[in-house]
Amino acid sequence: MQRAHVVEEREADVGRGAHVNQTDWERRVADAWASIDHYGEAEFLVLIEQLAAEQPPDSGVGLFERAAAFDSTGHSDLAVPLYRQALACGLGGERRRRAVIQLASSLRNLGQAQESVGLLTAELAAGSDHLDDAVRAFLALALVDVGREREAASLALAALAPHLPRYQRSLGNYARLLVEPERL
Fold first, then answer.
1. Contacts for 8-14 with beta carbons within 8 Å, 24 or more apart?
2. Is 32 part of a structural domain of the chain?
3. Residue 20: what pLDDT?
């Protein structure tokens, strides 16, 4: 009887984010995302909701994971407010940058491309990391939606150029010339 009481207390505490081993929680979240294609939409949303519920209610991390799950299952409209809440709760690190990228992508999908451009332009200026090309790629999509196709092509090609086995210099120059006037 004593053991059952301890289990019930633990389960109650987990819902408030207490006693959660973050390393284990991160592993379980990563496993869930790695196996997304093995779940139906509803099953996956429930799985992520259960994991997010293990975090404190004001956890930007839990809100972000819920937003990402909605986003990945085609519910940008439900994801946007959760991304905004996650960022407002002080979401940090790589998840913060991912939240900005994913929020901007969702906004573009909802017809708010100008706001997407603003968010991603600011994100490019905010610092540099391994997600820079993702920022540029989603910014290029948003730029197309606001009628700035040459700038979008330039940005996408400039992001691609360093990854090519050859022609990096040429492609980089051509990308730049799409938006700069040619010098005589």
1. 14/53, 14/54
2. no
3. 84
Does 33 map to a domain? no
Full residue range of the structural domain in which residue 124 is found = 113-184
Give the helix ranges, DSSP H, for the chain: 2-14, 22-34, 41-53, 60-72, 76-88, 93-109, 113-125, 132-145, 149-160, 168-177
Other residues' Cβ atoms within 10 Å of the Cβ of residue 97: 20
Question: For residue 48, what pLDDT is reported?
Answer: 98
Query: Hey, what's the torsion of the CAs at 156, 141, 64, 71, to 10 degrees?
Result: -130
**35 lies in a domain?**
no
How high is the pLDDT of residue 9?
A: 35
Number of domains present in the structure of the chain: 1
Low-confidence ranges of the chain (pLDDT < 50): 1-15, 184
Scored b (16 or more CB within 10 A) or e, 144-170 reads bbeebeebbbbbbbbbbbeeeeeeeee
